[in-house]
Amino acid sequence: MSWGTKLTIGMIVFMGFIVTLVVMMIKPHKADSLIDADYYEKGQVFDRDYDAKRAALDDQMSPTIQAGAKGVNIVFPKPVTYTILIRNLADSNFDKAFKSDSVKTEVVIPANELKSGSWLLRIEYKSGTKEYLYQDKMLLP
Q1: CB under 8 Å to 13, separation ≥6 — which residues?
Q2: 63-81 pLDDT per residue, tens
Q3: What average pLDDT does this structure show over 104-110?
Q4: Which of 8, 47, 106, 114 is the one with CA 20 to 30 A from 25?
Q5: Under a CB-based contact definition with an 8 Å cutoff, are residues 133 and 52 in contact?
């Protein structure tokens, strides 16, 4: 085989590689599960979230979180109503939400409802008329 034939084969293989990359880039694919579908709306309420986080620190209303083999135990300093969103960093199919309109000081999320790995925890809670927000990452065994 001459050098001209080898050069032509090499160019054809390279062009095939480039065409494959272009097709993969254009082809529709599964949306990135780490990006919120409503990220724009969340950006609009950034100030409200910031004020709620600051209020939790100022009023010493941050919950105590303990994650162990039995699950996640969340203890609030005072009785609150809450909405808890736990998002799995690896797969959004495992995301969980918990809500209570009754006043509680402790919440236990059983380990069988959560798989091990990295999670984002967002707790919106209310004591009286004051709204609070707690956000953190946690690693479950």
Answers
A1: none
A2: 998 887 778 888 988 888 8
A3: 84
A4: 8
A5: yes
